[in-house]
Amino acid sequence: MAMRLLVSLVIVALASADVGSHVSISHGGAKHAVTYSAHRPHHAPPSYHHPAPAYQPRQSYHKPAPAYHHQPAPAYKPTPAPYKASVEPPACSVNTTKAWCLEDNEYPTYELKAAIEYHYTKFRNLYADVADLNTELSVERPTTLEEETYLCPSDTAYVRPLRAINTEGKWRVIINNIEAHYETLTQTTRIEECLTSGEACPLVPACYETKCLQKSIYHRFVVYDAYDQYFPFAVETFQLPASCACLVGAYTIDH
C-alpha cells in the first residue's frame, strides 16, 4: 500500500514539475535518489537575422588600355597658299628695286622639302633640265687699258635668287638652297648690272653720242606653285641682267 502511495506521489510530482526539474524521494530509512528529467519541446523564438549573402567578387570597372598601333605618316597634301601671296609683292621686295630677292624671311622651306620628297622622281627630272646649266663664265675681267676693259662700269656676280618676277610680271618662289633627298638643290645664275645705265660711255670721245645700256638675258628656273595640288613645280622664264653695253649713236663727218 505504501509502495502504491509512493508511486502516485511520484506521478503527481512529475506532472507538476517543470522541465529539467529533479525529484528526490526517500523511502523508509534509506534514501533513494531518483532523478527524473523531462524536457518540454522547446520552440525557439523567430529569428529576424537574415543570413549573409554569398560572397561575390567585386566586378572590376577598369577598362583595358587601348592598343596603339604605329600609323604610317600621312601622305603629303599641298595646301594652297592664300591668293594674295601670288598677286601682291612679297615682303622681301619692299626694300629693294630689283626684280629678285636673295634673302627672304617668308621663304617656304618646310613646304618645299615636303613637296620635293613626295614628288622626288618627277621633280628630279624637271630639275635636271635646268640645274646642270654651265654658268662658269669669266667674271674676272680685264681692268687695265693695256689689255682690254669694258666701256661701261658694271657689277657682276653669281646669285641664287629665292624669289623673282617672271616674264609675265608675277612673283614666283624659286627652288634654291633646299636640302632634300640627301642633296642640296640650287639654281645659280650669273648677272651683270650696269652702274651708270643711261649715261655716256666713259673713255669714248665726246664727239660720239654714246650711252651705257643694260642688256638682259632669259633664264629658266624651277619654281614652286602652291596652287597646283597634283604637281606643284614648273619651269618658268625670268629676265635678268646679263651685261652692260655701250651704245654708240649715228656719227657723220662734216667738212
Automatic annotation (TrEMBL):
Organism: Meganyctiphanes norvegica
Superkingdom classification of source: Eukaryota
Record domain Spaetzle: where: 150-248
UniProt region (Disordered), positions on chain: 39-81
Signal peptide coordinates: 1-17
Comp. bias regions, Low complexity: 45-55, 62-74
GO MF annotation terms: growth factor activity; Toll binding
Name of this chain's protein: Spaetzle domain-containing protein
The keyword Disulfide bond appears for this protein: yes
InterPro entries documented for this protein: Cystine-knot_cytokine, Spaetzle, Spz/Toll_ligand-like
Keyword terms, alphabetized: Disulfide bond, Glycoprotein, Signal
GO cellular component annotations of the record: extracellular space
Gene Ontology biological process terms, A to Z: central nervous system formation; innate immune response
